[in-house]
Design goal:
With 315 residues, the protein is α/β, with parallel strands linked by helices. The chain has 11 helices and 9 strands. The radius of gyration is 20 Å and the shape is globular.
């Protein structure tokens, strides 16, 4: 499998064939992860450092598990309590990391573009685990794998992304990926939660859930990111649920076999009805968590192959 990228900083840089390569390899890892022995040695002898400047349970656990199952030496750096708090710059951190000779660096950062900056300064492969409102590429890839395994394809589907679009790096990465795979994207939410210039994203925009969900194949709900808001975005969580929370009545507008997705963590009774979230016939939310480990294993294998090739040439 060929993957001509040193880092995974976003979906924007990927070609549709790159996306397919990742998803095909991830399918193999789904099989491995469901087997009795979940170990591989493709990252044996390599070091993976996870640096999370923002709290994350799901993503960090998923990357850690992925690295360990591939045989890497995995280290988690607690950045909230690190030298960054003492005034160390991102460049200083990069210099320190280079001295440790890691092979894979997984970074989540609250500032858009910070992961890209770090990638320019370190001598290893960098994976973006979410930077500000910019991108969250592995989330979009795991969502794509979930959709493909459920629907049998990614091309020419109708996908509704609903809720807090403005603050969501997940939405941004998914819009890019689904556009590359020629699917039709509908964004549904209040005008206060739509980003500026949304008409340039190659999407349809709806204010009304009933209208926006008409005959869609996939309903992707987003978390209401109250921590990124400073008031005035929504009248109240109760009113938001009434207008934009997914319930059975609104879901009835979608196709009968439409699947329900959510990147997590969910605010039950705000973005989605709890019964729907747990409906094994419609909800693929737990599948998304499973696919996350497989996708991250696939990406790390592909980047490690390039890293070894580059190091081999340098030697």
């Amino acid at each position: 499998m060929t993957f001509a990228h040193r880092h995974l900083l976003g979906i924007e840089q990927l070609h549709p064939t790159d996306i397919t390569t990742i998803l095909d390899l991830a399918d193999n890892y789904v099989t491995l992860n469901r087997g009795a022995s979940k170990r591989s040695d493709v990252l044996s002898g390599l070091t993976q450092i996870n640096m999370f400047f923002e709290n994350s349970t799901r993503t960090q656990a998923s990357f850690e598990l992925a690295g360990k199952r591939l045989g890497a030496d995995v280290m988690n750096m607690a950045m909230q309590a690190s030298s960054i708090k003492k005034g160390e710059t991102l460049i200083d951190t990069a210099m320190t990391l280079n001295a440790m000779h890691p092979d894979l660096l997984v970074v989540r950062h609250p500032q858009s573009g910070a992961v890209d900056l770090l990638a320019q300064k370190v001598n290893c492969a960098v994976l973006n685990a979410g930077d500000g409102r910019h991108e969250h590429p592995t989330q979009a890839l795991l969502d794509a794998l979930t959709i493909r395994r459920s629907k049998g394809r990614l091309h020419r589907l109708s996908v509704a992304i609903c809720g807090d679009i403005s603050h969501s790096r997940v939405a941004r990465s998914n819009i890019m990926l689904l556009n590359k795979m020629e699917s039709r994207i509908r964004l549904i939410g209040p005008p206060t939660l739509m980003p500026a210039g949304i008409d340039q994203f190659g999407v349809e925009v709806f204010e009304d859930m009933h209208e926006g969900l008409q005959d869609v194949d996939v309903v992707m709900m987003l978390r209401l990111q109250l921590e990124r808001m400073d008031g005035g975005f929504i009248p109240s969580p109760r009113e938001y649920y009434h207008r934009y929370g997914l319930d059975a009545e609104k879901l009835a507008q979608a196709k009968p076999d439409a699947i329900i997705m959510h990147p997590g963590p969910m605010n039950r009774g705000v973005e989605i009805d709890g019964t729907l979230a747990d409906d094994i016939n419609r909800s693929v939310i737990q599948d998304q968590v499973e696919m996350g480990v497989a996708v991250r294993m696939a990406v790390m294998e592909l980047l490690a192959q390039n890293q070894r090739h580059t190091n081999g040439q340098a030697a």
